[in-house]
Each structure stands twice: as C-alpha cells, then as structure tokens.
Design brief:
The structure holds 2 protein chains of 2 kinds. By secondary structure, chain A is mostly helical. Chain A contains 7 helices and 2 strands. Chain B has 9 helices and 30 strands. Classes of the chains: A mainly alpha, B alpha+beta. The interface between A and B is large, with 102 and 149 residues.
Chain lengths: ~230, ~675
C-alpha cells in the first residue's frame, strides 16, 4: 500500500511537469471566501409537505453501504479476470482481425474496470477478494468460489484453450456473450438488492458497465451473424 | 458526467513505486539510463516484470499512458496550463482573457472533505459509511471516497439568482453583484445528479440514483438484513420502495428562502438530465424532456417499467425519452404524457433503429444500439432540438413539443459517448460534445488524441447535419486531472459564434466557432490538479455566460465567477456588446434566440470585427468610428444620427461584395443599427 509522503518523494525526480513551479494564485485572484454557510439550510419534505430548516452545523450523511455493494465489486473483479484471461488467449489462437480488435478493447476496458473496483474496495477498507465463511483457500481462478453468473466453466475454458482459428473465434464469441450476459445479471441483481447501489461511484460504475457490455454483446451478435 | 471510469495514470510514479517497493532505496528509483547504477546491485527480481503485477494491484498506482494511435495528434504540453501546481484551494492558476472575480467554497453541508482528510467531519463520515479504522488508510484514499456523492453539477439562472445543482441537493446564490456573490439558500435533497432548470416560480431537479427519496431524506434505504440460517440461497424479496424517488422533482421557489417540493414525477430510469421546453403557443404549460441513462427499476416499484429488449417487450423503458407536462398554475398535476420512441426505424417500426456505426470518416463498425439520450438541447425558436444520445447525435422536430420526431441522426467514428449539444444563435451549426471516459477519466493528456473526447462542430442546413471539425482543449492536462469536453453556453458577442465551455479539471475554455471548419480558443482559465498522485474528482462541470459574467460550477471546490477581458482575440467593444444583452432567466439546454439591442455599442463591436477581417478599408473604419463617437457624445442628436444613416447607405453598397458570409452579416447588422440607433 502506498504511503503519501513516500510516493511524493519517489515521484519528484520523474514527474516534474506536475510539480510546483512558478504558479501561485495570481495577484488578480479573487478573495477566497471562507467555507460558506448559507443564510438558510432547508430540507424539503415529500411533495405537498412543508420544508424544515436545518441547523447551520448540519453535516452531510450518506446511506449505509450494503454488503451487496461490496460483494458485487468483489464478484465482478473475479468475473472480469476471467474475461481478461479469455482475451489473453487470442494472440496465440486466432488471426481473425475482428476478434483480435474486439479482444483488445475488452481486455483494456475490463482491466481498467478491475483497477477501479480494486480502488473502490481498498479505499473503503474492504478485501479485494470475496471471502466465504467456511471456504478457505480461494484462488484467483475462482475454483473454490461460487462462480459468478455467466462465467465459463472449467470445461468451457479448456475447450477454448484447445481450439484454434475459426473454432476458437466461435467459442470465444459464444463464451464472451455468455460472460457479458452474466454481468448484466449481476448489475440487475445489485440494483434489485435492498439498500444496494446507493453509493454514487458504484452507481455510475455499474451503470457504465451495463451500457458497455450491452454494446459489446451487440457487436458480438453481429460478428456471429456474419461468421456463424 | 455519465459514467464511471476512474483511471489515474502516472507511468513515472508507477515505475518509481515498482522499483521502490523492490529495492527500498530512494536513490535506486530513477529509471533514466544515464543514472549511475546503485552501488549495491539490485536483486535480480527487482526489475523483473514479475514484480509488476504486485504494483498493479494497487489500484491507486498510475497506469502507463497508451501511446497516441497512428495519425493522431495530442494536446500541447508547453501550454502554461500543462504544469500548474496541484492543490485543493491553493492550486496554481493560469488564465487568458478571463478575470477571476469571485470564488465561493462549497457549503459545509455539501462536502466531507473540508480541506484535508484529517478534518473530523471526514472521519465522521467515513465511520458512518462503515469504514472503521481509517488510520491505516493512506490519506489520498480518504480524499477520494464519496467525492461524487457531493459533486456540484449543472446551473440554472433567474433574475439575480443562480441555482447550482449538486448530487446532494441545490445551492441558491445571490448574484446581483457577481463580484460579491453570496449563498442564500442550501437545499438538501440527495439523489444525483441534480441537473436543474427554473421557470417562473418552479425549480426542476433531476434524480436518478437509488438513494433518492420522496422526502429528500439523506439516509437512503437500509440494506437487507443477513439471511436467516439455512436460507442463504433463497431469492430475496424485490427491493421495491414506495418512498424511493427517481425522476424529476418540482419545487416552488416563490419564497427563495424556503423552497417547497410540490411534485415529484417518477420515471422508470430516473432522470440523468432534463430539458425545460417552453411551447411558444402554450402559456399554461411547460414540458420537461427526461433523459434517463441508468437501470430500469422493477415493475413492483413503478408499474409498467420494463428493461427488456424491444423484441421481448414493446413497452420497454429503453429506447425512449419521457415527456412531462407541467401545468404552470397547478404543478402538482405534472405527469408523464408521452414517451417518444426517438430511435425508431420509420421503415420497419423497430424501436432500436439507430446505432453508432460510422456515418462519416473511416472507422470500425460498431453496431451498438442507441437506447438512451444523455442530454437534449431544444431551440424552440427554430422548432428543433439536438439530442446527444450516447451512440448518436440526433435532430428532433419539436414543433409539437409533446411529440418530438427525429428528422436526422449522425454518428462519428471518433465519438465514444454523445453527451450534450448547443446550437449557434442562427441555428446553422450544432456543437456536440463527446464525454469519452465518462468525465471521471484523464482524457486530455498529451497522449490522448485531440479528436477523442472533443467537441464536434456540425453544420445544420435544411434539417441535415454535416460534420465540419473537432475542437478540443488545446492544453495538455495531467493524468490526475479528469478532463473531457463538457457543458458550455454561447457568449452573446454579436457577429461571432463563441462558446464558453467546461472541461472538468481542464478548466474553462472559450472557443470561437464562427467558421465551423476552423474553431479556435480565445480565452481560458485553469487550475492545477487537486492532487498530484491520485485522481480526485473535480473541475468544472459547467461554464455558462449569464448577463455579463461567466460562472463555473467546480465539482469539488465550489463556485467561480469570471469576467471577460480584452485580448487580441476579443475587443472591449465586443465584450461590451455581449454585456448589453440581458435575459430574464437562463436554462442553457432550453436555448433562446439572442437579440441584440440596436445600440451603438453593438455597432462598435461589428466595426472591430470588420477591421479584424479587413472587410472594410481602414479609412472607412476610422470615419465610421468617429461618426459613432460623435453621435454618442451628442446623445444621438438628429444631425449626428443623419450622418450615421448616410454612412450606413455606403456600407449597404459594399456588403454585397463581402468576402465571407460572416462579414456580409456583420455589414448588414451594422448598417441596420446605424440607420436606427437606440439609446
């Protein structure tokens, strides 16, 4: 885990462009107001109900985080890791340009998203992996964990590893569609869980993942139609 | 902002971290080949790629920047904006043509990170979130928690009041003296993203997140208790909540110090943004176009909602926008009156008739269906709306506001997410934005192509859009600065098309797009990154001109106010002419035609432009300037005005031979004012 000061020191010889130079708030800068307190702080009621005035000392609050949020992120990391694993096979298994290009896109977006999810979990002090009571010894391939929706079975993964050329393309597309459809189920389950999805960052992430994967499913459908 | 992808990338720091973690020597970090090797040889594994995954597992560590694709160019790293000092409230600043006249921090009730993570309020909120021991957590991590939950968002304006939306509510400011802007009322009502519009005594607000409550409560909804022993595998009950609110709230702001919620119109996907639509032929009602981009809620919660494909359910809540009709005198009766299928294929009747496959330029076919609009800008004066609809830019005929109909659609191989739109005042151009990376990613680095995450300027003629050019913030930004094209508004400089626009942590850029094929920057303001090591969400969500000032909605820091100052790109006369335009209210996505008063200050702006483009000989410019000065001094006495009229006739004789359409328009407009100058 990074430490604040250490990283700054580590950074200094390398990242000059982002480090302090000449700029300070200039002479023309406006006076910076003190943390502003409004003349009134109100919280409206339900439609038709009166608003209530809050004391100036009021500080923001957030909904309690749901376990479903944490499990969604942990599960989706595992889910995404399998997609990255699948795309890693492409280079050695097919020359199909379209599959290669799609694979590169999926690999890059899912890797980005894995980092986001890890960051979300780490910044909330949560484990990056799912731990199930009484199920020690998880591994990254998910052997000991319950598979997430849409994840390929070990047999499916084996078949994919053995396939080459057109057969690989077909299995890859079928498999990745199954995989992505599983992600849509996971997003739906998240928002179906009481109290889940109320964290703004998580909400945006899940919404984006849903939109992206829907789009990629459509692309894969089209590719399958063209090359069944 | 629409979607999430925080990717904080700093290859250099990452390299340092990898080496540091392995070698443990500060001196050994520098990867430059010229650096002498450490006296003690590093263990073999220290530089081995096998160590890299360990570093990569730190989600806060930077990622290597992807090189520019072949044929693409990036932004300018020598610009002063590329190297500003980081900081929350003490960041370095760079400006050109803009004077920063006021800044107000977010109210305390709208932020957890007052100044530093050590603030007791931060600790309190973290505890509340169930984050127990924060002492082990690096400080930058604490800074990034729940940034979005309190993000400032869009603006609306009315009279001397500014309404600043926030994921957590709305703040209302008094801007009667923009340099002394003050906070009047804070309204706590969470639910994101707090897009706002104002009409007469009504304030509208978008809500999309599942924590939105009818009663504006901040507590959201409680999580499900753990299942009883032996029932772990059972399907849980639906999360339907009768008190949940996702849609458009309506507040009565007759008493600006005590707004009251009078209606809350629920929609299936909530409201990511909304657009106020005023029917020129209907004074009794206004309309709200609702753009929902997130998940479709359960039918148990809101009857009729379905997230199925059109094939499975023709009543799906996907592939549509919603139209709310609001009786102005009885807003409590507001309701959804239609859900136009704006993506329909008119020939086949398929609801998913649009996709983002490239219509111009060469690009990879990406046949993803467009199932949502992100934002819609209406221009009732010309009967059209421009929809920025994820995979497409669309043009809608809105002469019947309750039933908008698509008349054109475009896409672009360089576009990732169609986000927002604005028309030029004469309706001959549309500026679209591409929110590549969802607004939370660093997308203005030198390695990011300047056709990606940029504005796309289209010509609009006879109801058809045609691509003219891209415009992207010219200055390179760092990899801890979220940056991409975002919301802007026109600046009413007569004779030119000028837009001021927010670029998140890229700051504010003022662009001239009079020539659609050659847009260029004429002014800017920028701050350094909030944090040099971690991408902390911030920057300008919106930057809009309103009655003489420019307002910036800074997501993390607060509210900024600016004035234009003259530069070689913009004269004092042009600024004065823009300031001569006054509007009673401004909802940027409900675009209204700018009308300039027939005052000599406006004539002087045209004259400066004609001098700049050399459309008139310097001698004629000089005598016109003199005649205008004399007329002003005389307070428009008859003799001096008669002189102006004579000169206007001379202008008319030359306007036919103007070199450009823009100059021709300026000459006509100048002549009109000189013939009938107003006081």
């Amino acid at each position: 885990m990074l430490l604040h000061g250490m990283l700054l020191a580590a950074c200094s010889p390398l990242c000059g462009f982002a480090l302090p130079r000449l700029q300070q708030p200039g002479p023309e800068s406006p006076h910076v107001s003190n943390p502003s307190s409004p003349q009134v702080l109100v919280q409206p009621g339900a439609p038709g109900e009166p608003s209530k005035t809050l004391p100036p000392s009021t500080r923001p609050m957030l909904p309690q985080r749901a376990q479903a949020d944490v499990e969604f992120m942990q599960g989706m990391i595992m889910h995404h890791q399998q997609a990255v694993e699948m795309t890693a096979l492409i280079a050695a298994h097919t020359e199909n340009k379209n599959v290669r290009s799609l694979g590169a896109k999926i690999s890059s977006s899912q890797s980005d998203e894995i980092r986001f999810m890890q960051r979300w979990l780490a910044s909330r002090g949560e484990s990056l992996n799912m731990t199930m009571p009484g199920m020690p010894g998880m591994d990254m391939a998910g052997q000991a964990m319950p598979p997430m929706p849409g994840m390929l079975t070990p047999a499916q993964m084996d078949a994919l590893r053995k396939a080459r050329g057109a057969e690989f393309d077909h299995l890859f597309l079928i498999g990745m569609m199954q995989h992505h459809n599983g992600a849509l189920v996971m997003v739906k389950d998240l928002f179906d869980a009481p109290g889940a999805g109320q964290d703004a960052e998580l909400f945006n992430f899940a919404t984006d993942a849903d939109n992206t994967q829907r789009a990629e499913i459509k692309i894969m459908q089209k590719m399958l139609e063209n090359n069944p | 902002m629409n979607r999430e992808k925080i990717v904080a990338c700093r290859w250099a720091a990452m390299a340092a971290v990898i080496l540091y973690s392995s070698v443990g020597l500060m001196q050994a970090q520098t990867p430059a080949p010229s650096t002498p090797a450490p006296s003690t040889p590093a263990p073999a594994k220290s530089a081995a790629p096998a160590k890299a995954p360990e570093a990569e597992e730190d989600p806060f560590a930077p990622q290597p920047a992807v090189p520019l694709p072949p044929g693409m160019t990036g932004s300018d790293t020598s610009d002063p904006r590329a190297s500003l000092k980081p900081g929350m409230y003490d960041a370095g600043e760079a400006a050109s043509g803009l004077k920063h006249i006021s800044f107000l921090k977010k109210p305390d009730a709208f932020q957890i990170t007052a100044v530093s993570p050590d603030d007791p309020n931060v600790q309190k909120t973290l505890h509340q979130l169930g984050i127990g021991d924060t002492s082990k957590m690096p400080k930058p991590m604490q800074m990034v928690i729940a940034q979005l939950a309190f993000a400032n968002s869009d603006f609306a304006f009315q009279g001397t009041h500014l309404f600043q939306g926030n994921f957590y509510g709305v703040n209302i400011y008094d801007i009667s003296d923009p340099a002394k802007t003050s906070l009047l009322t804070s309204l706590v009502c969470p639910g994101g993203q707090g897009d706002v519009s104002v009409y007469k005594n009504l304030l509208f607000m978008s809500v999309e997140m599942p924590n939105g409550r009818l009663d504006c409560g901040a507590q959201g909804f409680p999580p499900e208790p753990p299942p009883a022993a032996g029932h772990e595998k059972e399907r849980r009950v639906p999360a339907a909540q009768k008190d949940r609110f996702r849609g458009v709230r309506i507040f009565d702001i007759s008493d600006i110090k005590n707004p009251k919620q009078v209606a809350a119109v629920q929609t299936c996907r909530g409201s990511h943004t909304h657009t106020l639509v005023v029917d020129p032929n209907d004074q009794a009602n206004v309309y709200i176009y609702v753009s929902g981009t997130s998940f479709v809620r359960q039918k148990e919660e809101l009857a009729g909602c379905s997230g199925e494909t059109p094939a499975k359910d023709p009543n799906t809540a996907l592939f549509r926008i919603d139209v709310i009709k609001v009786p102005v005198a009885a807003p409590q009766e507001a309701k959804v009156i239609s859900s136009p299928r704006v993506f329909i294929d008119a020939r086949t009747g398929a609801l998913n008739g649009l996709n983002n496959g490239g219509s111009h330029g060469k690009g990879e076919e990406k046949p993803a269906d467009t199932n949502q609009c992100h934002d819609i800008t209406v221009y009732s004066a010309i009967g059209l709306a421009a929809g920025a609809c994820s995979g497409n830019g669309i043009l809608l005929d809105i002469k019947d506001p309750a039933h908008p109909k698509r008349v054109d659609a475009v896409n672009d191989p360089n576009y990732s997410y169609w986000h927002s739109a604005s028309f030029s005042n004469d309706g001959s151009k549309v500026v679209f934005t591409d929110e590549w990376g969802g607004g939370l990613g660093a997308r203005c680095r030198a390695t990011d192509p300047n056709k990606w995450g940029a504005d796309a300027i289209f010509n609009l003629k006879d109801g058809k859009l045609s691509m003219a050019s891209y415009y992207k913030l010219p200055a390179a930004q760092g990899d801890t600065e979220n940056c991409v094209a975002h919301n802007g508004s026109l600046i009413p400089v007569p004779g030119r098309d000028i837009e001021v626009q927010a670029w998140y942590q890229g700051g504010i850029s003022v662009m001239d797009f009079t020539d659609a094929a050659h847009p260029f920057e004429i002014a800017y303001f920028d701050r350094g990154p909030i944090d040099p090591k971690v991408l902390v969400l911030g920057g300008d969500w919106s930057a809009y001109w309103y009655n003489g000032s420019i307002y910036g909605s800074e997501i993390a820091r607060g509210l900024d106010v600016f004035e234009l100052t003259p530069t070689k790109f913009l004269t004092q006369n042009e600024i004065d002419a823009a300031r001569a335009v006054h509007v009673a209210a401004l909802n940027v996505q409900n675009q209204e035609r700018i009308e300039w008063p027939a005052q000599l200050v406006v004539a002087k702006a045209y004259l400066d432009q004609l001098a700049r483009s050399q459309a008139l000989p310097p001698k004629q410019i000089g005598s016109l300037q003199k005649a205008i000065r004399n007329a002003e001094k005389s307070h428009l006495n008859a003799k001096k005005v008669a002189k102006l009229k004579t000169m206007a006739d001379q202008i008319d004789s030359t306007s036919a031979t103007a070199k450009s359409a823009a100059d021709s328009t300026r000459l006509h407009a100048l002549s009109d004012i000189l013939k009938h100058p107003a006081a």
